[in-house]
Amino acid sequence: MSESPQLTYGEIDRTVLDTLRPPTGGYWLVIMVLILGVLLGAACWVYQIFVGIGAGGQNIPVAWGTYLINFVFWVGIANSGTLISAILYLFRAGWRNPIARAAETMTVFAVSIAGLFPFIHLGRIWIVYYMLPYPNQRYLWPNFQSPLVFDVVAISTYLTVSSLFWYTGLIPDLAAVRDKATGVRKKIFTILSLGWTGKHEQWRHYTRGYLFFAALATPLVVSVHSVVSWDFALSVVPGWHSTIFAPYFVAGAIHSGLAMVLTLMIPLRKIFRYERILTMKILEAVAKTIIFTGLIVGYAYAVEYFLAWYSHNAVEMEAFRWRALGDYSLEFWIMVGCNSLVPLLFFFKRIRTSIPWLLGISILINVGMWYERFVIIVGSVAHGFIPHAWGLYRPSAIEFGIMLGAFSLFLLFFLLFLKHLPSISMTEMKETLDHGGDHGD
Amino acid sequence: MDRRTFLKIAGVSGLSFAASCTSQPEKTLYSLVQAPDDMVTGKATWYASTCRECPAGCGVLAKNREGRTIKVEGNPLHPINRGRLCMRGQAALQGIYNPDRIKTPLLKEAGKWRPVTYAEAEAIMQAKAEAAVRNGKGRVRMLTEVVGESLLNLASQSLENWDSKGPVIFEPFGYEALKEANSQVFGLDGLPSYKMDEADFLISFGADFLETWLSPVEYARKFKDMHGLRGQNKSLYFHVSPYQSLTGANADFWFSCNPDSEHFIALGLLREGIRHGNGRFLPEKVLTAIDTVSSPYTREKVSELSSLPPELFEKLYIHLQLARKPLILGTSTSATGANNLQTNIAVNLLNLVFDPDLELIDFSNRHRVETADRRSTVLEFFTELKSGAANLLLLNNVNPAFALPPGSGVREALERDSLFVVSFSSFMDETTELADLILPVCLPLEAWDEYGGKAGIVSTLQPTMGSLTGAPNIGDVLLRAAFGPQRPVKNFQAYLFAQLTLRDAIRGKRDWLQTLQKGGLFQSRKQEGGLQVALADTFQSTITTPPTPKENHLVFFAVPSIRFFDGRGANRPWLCEVPDTLTQVAWQTPVLMHPETLAARGLKQGDIVQIESRWGQLQMPVYETVGVHSKAAVVAIGQGHSAYGRYASGRGLNPIGLLSPELEPNSGGPFFAAGPIALKKTGRSIKLAHTDGSRDQHGRKIALSVQLKDLAHPEHHEGHGLGMWEFPLVLPLPEAYDRKTRDIYPPHQHEDYRWAMVVDMDKCIGCGACSVACYAENNVGVAGEARIIEGREMAWLQIQRYEDPKQREKITFLPMLCQHCCNAPCESVCPVYAPHHSKEGLNNQIYNRCIGTRFCSQDCPYKVRRFNWFVWQWPKPLNLQLNPDVTVRTKGVMEKCSFCIQRIKDAHNNAKNEGRKILDGEIQPACLQTCPTGAFTFGSLMDKESKVRKKVEDQRAYQVMGYLNTKPAVIYLKKVVQDI
To answer: Is the Cβ–Cβ distance between B593 and B624 less than 8 Å?
Structure first.
């Protein structure tokens, strides 16, 4: 890092705390637009509750549509936050520090958004509590055999742990904000920072605690998306019933999460003038990781075809033939192209150090990963065991409305976060300076 | 705010919130103010009656619950249908409860309808009749459908009383070519029935006896008696026609021939027959005549004329020659073309030549539809009306404005100012719209009447429920209007009693009551052979046309529909919703064409094509099928109404508009074919509302068949079922679990019963009656055309149709319903235990518990689960038909076949009351109950003596996708096919 030696504690504080100054009118305009988007999504959902799930485009055989595609998509996005903040922390990959805060925040919001979709998806949302193991006179418990009950446990655990981890990491920074704040903000941040004074004893407990937390959170990175994959792998549907699903989904999730980190961080870096903190080196490191996850995902695609061929099962073979050549072949090739082929461009240094390329490719990966879920969720059941029952699915306008609402809600949360909480961990940046720069260097 | 106020407000608002958030529709149940003494709430009363949805006259039992008829089933005592019904019979309920039923008489005043009371309407009619009588003789006319003898007598007497001629009987399908042929060959102007069950070989020259022809339920049963597998034997059935039809799809071979060339083949067979010495015992005169007419039709000539390859003709002939008791049937219900009469004559002669005693033709038990008047009489009737020959016209359940081609003059006749038209119809159909007074009379299920579908049968009708609209019986209306207070009998019921007594059918009140209870008198009083058939040879002059090949053009056929018959079924939502089994298209009317025809014109399925004949044009979507000859375009009759209520009006298309209003010169019958036609691309296309995803099985073990000759060498079920090509039969019983190889989990233990079903695909003809019966029994929602296009049909039981990819005209039907698996994939994935495995092995769906994750459907390999995407509508009073024993599912809930669990529970209750176990065969799910061919068997597999258990041991038994080890409780018996 050629520039980092010039950074000082004060400069870090200044750069980060500057981002919390009162925003301009443009910011509020964007916030208003996003709120409108959220309201539109909410209106679509309310309409669907009153009319019935038929407001969407699902049918028999494709009874799951964009709601579960978006669910898996957002869970996938959420996956990389903890990877970056916990696993890379344990591995002492110093390049993670500038992006860890934003990635964790992304995780918390993404998993919250993801958690909404199973609710939106339900035919009878008003009795959703049947899924919870609450004591009742009928002695009825949820079916713990059902992967959907696994989901309830996995997602809620993940949300809890990642929120707490995020908050723990925020405490010293909240105190730093408190110190510079006045008026009501001061009061709020005083409460939020939980009496942090920066005493040696506090730092000792804090760093230990953070480390243990990171170690505890690590299995969740693997578990949450493995559990989501079991929604599919534990069924009999050709194209779902496969042992490769858990690692395949985890790799895909990290792939999409890293891409989302790039998509969010690049504009952030520009707007908040974070160039000296979020150096090109860091973006490059993310891009290199994306090459790796992209290769795993590509390998998974190939293995699925190998297994279908090796099984000699007519149903399985037809399912995969149709995937590439049938009605959803466009979606399939978008998936393969965006997830496995396009990331290979990062092998070229010129591309992975070019901001427009990085942003463009990261968006393409996000698109590709959305289509991956489409291909898996829709494409498999659409062409199942009984040819007479084959059918196609197209999302309805209501589903697009809800999807727009979800993206708006995510961006709304994220923008509010940017202006109200430090979007880069000052603490960890300072640690980085202390240790004489990046461990990797 | 103090604590108390807060609690009050919180309580009230909480309650009102909870109350307003109910997902259930209104649940008001109105009980009878004064229930009849014998009515027990929750217990059904069954009334025997007769189905009047077509002229066949099947016996029905109507199930009445708390005053409403909620289901009709076949009357097991009735000789015509023996307890079975077709889909149209099942849907008769949606006539009485049709939301578009006219509830009060309507009088047309200045082009607008004004409701009047029944008394006023009758008074108007009576006044009009009296005024007409004052105008002179024959001023009152009546057009009626085929009715029972008693009502016909009453109508004739009434008209006589008004100094007028008797009623004209109009049926759109009058079998005129067949009647004319019978008269020319047998000297009998009627429609004998056929003892198909006694034949060992059957050829049909287009007769669609499984769909609409004469008496489809009866012939479906008899057909399977003959054609179903018996031991290691099975008779042959060949279908010769340019259009395959559902009936032809059940044939062992469909001989596709040029349009209008069936008679060449029949005559060719005749020539071969007498050349080989058949018919030598016939009178010399007849034999010579046969020889004369058939001699030009050498094998080569026949092939040239009909496009039937010589080797196929040879096969057809050889099998005919080898048969001991062959039966040959004539042309279709809508006798299609110009040469129908020749075909039917040749068919009659073939029967005569190959079965000189005509043992298989029952000349005594003739079909009542023979009483229908000739089309020429009907057209003459309208011409007379047009010329002002009458002042009052009575219309009884006829719709000539729809059923006759536009140029027939119906509209002009009915619109004449000097003619007052009274329609007794309960529906605003095309003809009723033209009437001056609508006096709706009660529908058959609400009426006293009598209708014998065949001679020698008395089949009674009695009200199966109270009247919904207060409509009178047509008999009573006629009695009051024609005879006034001096009428000979009090009412039509008394008239019926008198008539039947007069016919020596019943003796006294007691006899009458017993007859009503049984649904009729079924001991045929007329003995067979009572009628002497006089052989005639007048046919010689008919078959004189030289054998000239037809020009090479496309011919258009309008064929009757198994769903709508002549169009009268088009306002029943079930019939629209259940797809035509051959095309799997619901709600729409496509034109069926051969792939070659389409390819030559650059058309594909779903394209809208304009069809132009000399008489009209129609724009309709194309359906591609090899089931029609490449020179034919086929459209089903029934839809395309411009009126007739919300379910019929503006849906589909009416092919009759393309037909000639003139009569076919030979037979005097109507044309149901038009040629040549021109096809024009419109460049537009639509999505067909079809319910199938693929016509092909893709080599999977789904709808299996076995060659007859292979039955002698049974294939052993081998392996553990771990691979797709191993195919053990794994019964859903504990003993079938093999924890060494294929099972991990312990077996389900069952208590007393393990319900299972055997579906004999050799018997399934794909008629779809089961599917409609299921809609009726289980309150299955009707989704509608748009929803079906979206893939949201609700049928719990579908007839899946699979084409053989090598010979696409070879079709296998597979009734697909919930398989009630022992290892059900749906059960393990539901987070809330809504799919639940019962102690008796049923895969129950607990609607109350379902939260709508739809995971069960995703995981169901058979895709038999159905989801309530919306709250389905039963526009009032269709809701009165709902079965009170079955929950009406709300939106957001999964549902599927329950094996009619309400019937199982009912049997449990009865058995418990009587302190016994449930008997084998005691439970009849609705599909099984109505199946005309008895393809279903239901019972407990735990009972080693049960019929299902016995049938499971059949070597043909298999399970669909058995290798998945779901251990389905629906076990199929392979269809038995034979190569010729």
So the answer is: yes
Please indicate whether, in this complex, the C-beta atoms of B867 and A123 are within 8 angstroms of each other: yes
Contact A123 B851 (CB under 8 A): yes
Chain A residues closer than 8 Å to B790 by CB: 54, 57, 59
Mean pLDDT within B839-858: 94
Q: What is the pTM of this model?
A: 0.92
The residue in chain A having the minimum alpha-carbon distance to the alpha carbon of residue B826 is A235
Nearest chain B Cα distance for residue A333, angstroms: 23
Per-residue 3-state assignment (H helix, E strand, C coil) for chain A: CCCHHHCCHHHHHHHHHHCCCCCCHHHHHHHHHHHHHHHHHHHHHHHHHHHCHHHCCCCCCCCCCHHHHHHHHHHHHHHHHHHHHHHHHHCCCHHHHHHHHHHHHHHHHHHHHHHHHHHHHCCCHHHHHHHCCCCCCCCCCCCCCCHHHHHHHHHHHHHHHHHHHHHHHHHHHHHHHHHHCCHHHHHHHHHHCCCCCCCHHHHHHHHHHHHHHHHHHHHHHHHHHHHHHHHHHCCCCCCCCCCCHHHHHHHHHHHHHHHHHHHHHHHHHHHCCCCCCCCHHHHHHHHHHHHHHHHHHHHHHHHHHHHHHHHCCHHHHHHHHHHHHCCCHHHHHHHHHHHHHHHHHHHCHHHHCCHHHHHHHHHHHHHHHHHHHHHHHHHHHCCCCCHHHCCCCCCCHHHHHHHHHHHHHHHHHHHHHHHHCCCCCHHHHHHHHHCCCCCCC
Kindly state whether B846 is in contact with chain A, defined as any CB-CB distance less than 8 angstroms. no
ipTM of the complex: 0.93
Range A4-19+58-394+423-434 classified under CATH 1.20.1630.10: yes
Most B CBs within 10 A among A47, A60, A134, A390, hence the mutation to make, goes to A60
Set of chain A residues whose Cβ sits within 8 Å of the Cβ of B695: 387
- What is the pLDDT, as a whole number, of residue A435? 58
Which residue bears the tokens 């809330």?
Answer: B832
Say if residues A237 and B854 touch (Cβ distance below 8 Å). Answer: no
Nearest CA in chain A to B963: A313
The domains located in chain B, with CATH, are 176-367 (3.40.228.10), 553-685 (2.40.40.20), 706-712+721-741+749-977 (3.30.70.20)
Tell me: the pLDDT tens digits for B658-700? Answer: 999 998 888 888 999 988 899 999 999 999 999 999 999 998 8
Set of chain A residues whose Cβ sits within 8 Å of the Cβ of B869: 52-54, 58-59
